Structures are given as C-alpha cells and as structure tokens.
From TrEMBL:
One of its GO terms (molecular function) is 3-deoxy-7-phosphoheptulonate synthase activity. NCBIfam families: aroFGH, PRK12755.1. This is Phospho-2-dehydro-3-deoxyheptonate aldolase. Stereospecific condensation of phosphoenolpyruvate (PEP) and D-erythrose-4-phosphate (E4P) giving rise to 3-deoxy-D-arabino-heptulosonate-7-phosphate (DAHP). Residues 48-345 form the DAHP synthetase I/KDSA domain. Keywords: Amino-acid biosynthesis, Aromatic amino acid biosynthesis, Transferase. GO terms for biological process: amino acid biosynthetic process; aromatic amino acid family biosynthetic process; chorismate biosynthetic process. One of its GO terms (cellular component) is cytoplasm. It comes from the Bacteria. Belongs to the class-I DAHP synthase family. Pathway: Metabolic intermediate biosynthesis; chorismate biosynthesis; chorismate from D-erythrose 4-phosphate and phosphoenolpyruvate: step 1/7. It comes from Pelagicoccus albus. It catalyses: D-erythrose 4-phosphate + phosphoenolpyruvate + H2O = 7-phospho-2-dehydro-3-deoxy-D-arabino-heptonate + phosphate.
Length: 353
C-alpha cells in the first residue's frame, strides 16, 4: 500500500485563538472521508465473527488482537497492514486476526497523546489533521479487508472513528469511569474492559456489568450538538486481563476466576488476555511466553478464553520520539515485538489449535 495520506490531509482552521481550534463535526468528517462498500462489509463481518468467538458460538478459533502499541506513522502502519493481511488469511481457519490501530495514548503524567492530537509527533496541536489522517488510514485498511481495533479514550472523539472499528477497548486508567462505561454501552461493537491498574478483577467485572446495561446520559450527536443518549447495553462487553502493579494475572487461577465471575453474573463468557503491560512486566520479549501459556490453558479445556492481545510492530523494541532520526516501524510508545517474531508466534498458536 503506497501512502500519500499525510499529503492528502488538508485542514481548515478558520477559527483559531489561544485556547480553541474549531474542527469539523463527526458527520462532516464521515461525509468527507467515508468507508467504501468493502470497508463497511469488513467492519460488519468482523464484528459478527468476534461476537461469535466471545459467546462460544465459534469455539474453534482464537481471537488475536495484534498491532502497534499506537499508530505514529501512517506509512509504517500501511506496510504492517500488508503483512498482517497475508498472515490473517494464512491462519484464518484457526485464528481471527484484528489489527490494533490505536490513535490515543493514555498518559499517567504527560507525554505524546497520540496521532489524533499530534499527528507529526512534535508536540503541536493539530486535532483536525490527526482525525482526518486516522480516518483516511482506516478507510484504506478496511477497504482492503483488514479489520481494526482501538482503545476509546476521549468519548468526544469516538464518533469520528467508531464506524471504522470492529473491536474496541476501555483501558485500565478509565475502566472505573462512569462516562466510559456509558460509552461502552452505546458502541455497536464488541468492547473489552481492562482490569484496573492494580490488576484487580472487580473494576473490570463491574464495568462489564455496567456496559451491558441500558443507560441514559448526556453526550453529543453526530453534528456535535449536545444530546441525551439512550442505550440498550452492549452484549459484547467482556473482561480483558492485563495484569497490574500487583503482578500478572494470566495464570490459570486468575483466568478461571475471571471466567467464573462472568458466568456467575450472566455476563459475556469470553475473556481476552493482554500479553503485554502487567502480564509481561512491560518486557515485550515475554509476550510470546504469556501467549503460549494462555494457549496451553485453552487447549487443556478452558473454553472461557476467547483471545489474546499482542503489541507488535515492524521492528522490535522502542525508541524515543525526540532522539534524532527514527527507525522506520519501531514504536515510540511501549516496546513491541518485531514482525518476524509476530509471524512465528501467530503461526505457532494457530498450529497448536
């Protein structure tokens, strides 16, 4: 896939002052940068297939959410997507691959907030350019058959991209937020809710209960106007185990506890295990061993395991965004496994299934 996405992204900032930059409404952005028929079909098909895996209707395949920690370069994302699409087709009978396309980066203190805020990664505000760039990329990916996943961080930004996404997640820092639980209840896709930063399960289980329930809350419509939104609840809401400050939680006891808690409350049966973050001790090289242990549990009969999440990029490791010339395809946020290791791991997982 050749990329001229950045060059195509023109931004009008007619109203600018020291505090505010006007941006197009979600409706305008969708009209200007729509998904084609192939893209719409890709999203709809993947949402259904992911839901079937989570509910146990498709018990033969493993959901694998795999891709960069965050998208910081559209050219490298397109190269990654080309390789990803070939691998997804190769293992289709055993695994459903969905590409991580994360455009917002939650920060414990400060740092680069993601492509939606700062597409040039130079500390400059350019939100309209970032949103347009992300939509162009997603339209290209879904149009070519690559299904996409993201973490929803700012609820006001969700309407700009949600129609492009087959899977969404709510992160550990926001899983206890009522606003994010309400957002999850509205989104029309499977949503994974991560355990809290300490690794405890209760926050994620409570969040899933909330997301699967109906809500009425204040939000905005597609034209950017304030609106009262009513939801029926999201039956695709489920727990993601990602470890935490108290240690990993991908062991068989922790997984069984999560599965049992969900079943006891009548929640979605599927559990997804994040092989990075607290479960790998933030060491990207340990992701493969975490994934294989989760697979061992699944093969041994733990049918509550629906999938895994991997942080992967073209080049292994991590680099600073401000340290001179960058390595093409290497993360500027969390360290990732490289593409060769990704291919080997996914093939090994598929073969074991």
């Amino acid at each position: 896939m050749k990329s001229d996405l950045l060059e195509q992204t023109a931004v009008s900032t007619a109203e600018v002052d020291d505090q505010c930059i006007s941006i197009p409404s979600p409706f305008q952005m969708r009209q200007n940068l729509p998904l084609d028929e192939n893209g719409q079909a890709t999203v709809a098909r993947a949402r259904t297939e992911i839901g079937d895996i989570l509910q146990g209707k498709d018990s033969e395949r493993l959901l694998i959410l795999c891709g960069p920690c965050s998208i910081d370069n559209v050219n490298s994302a397109l190269v990654y997507a080309e390789r990803f699409a070939r691998l997804a087709e190769e293992v289709l009978d055993k695994a459903l691959l969905v590409m991580r396309t994360y455009f917002e980066k939650p920060r414990s203190v400060v740092g680069w907030k993601g492509l939606l805020y700062d597409p040039m990664t130079e500390g400059e505000r350019s939100p309209a350019a970032g949103i347009a760039l992300a939509r162009r990329l997603l339209a290209r990916l879904t149009g070519s058959g690559v299904s996409c996943a993201t973490e929803f961080l700012n609820p006001l930004l969700a309407p700009y991209l949600e129609d492009c996404m087959s899977y969404g997640s709510i992160g550990a820092r926001t899983v206890e937020s009522q606003i994010h639980r309400e957002l999850a209840s509205r989104l029309e896709m499977p949503i994974g809710l991560k355990n809290g930063m300490d690794g405890g399960l209760s926050s994620a289980v409570n969040a899933v209960r909330s997301a699967q329930s109906s809500h009425s809350f204040y939000s905005q419509d597609l034209h950017g106007c304030p609106a009262l939104v009513s939801t029926q609840g999201n039956n695709g809401a489920h727990v993601i185990l990602r470890g935490g400050s108290n240690g990993p939680n991908f062991d068989s006891k922790s997984v069984s506890n999560a599965v049992d808690a969900g079943r006891l409350l009548g929640l979605s049966r599927g559990v997804v295990v994040d092989c990075s973050h607290g479960n790998s001790g933030k060491d990207h090289r340990k992701q493969a061993s975490v994934a294989m242990e989760v697979l061992r549990q699944k093969v041994a009969g733990q049918d509550g395991i629906a999938g895994i999440m991997l942080e992967s990029n073209l080049v292994a490791g991590q680099q600073s965004a401000n340290a001179g010339p960058r390595v093409f395809g290497q993360s500027i946020t969390d360290a990732c496994i490289g593409w060769k290791d990704t291919e080997c791991l996914v093939r090994e997982l598929a073969a074991s299934l």
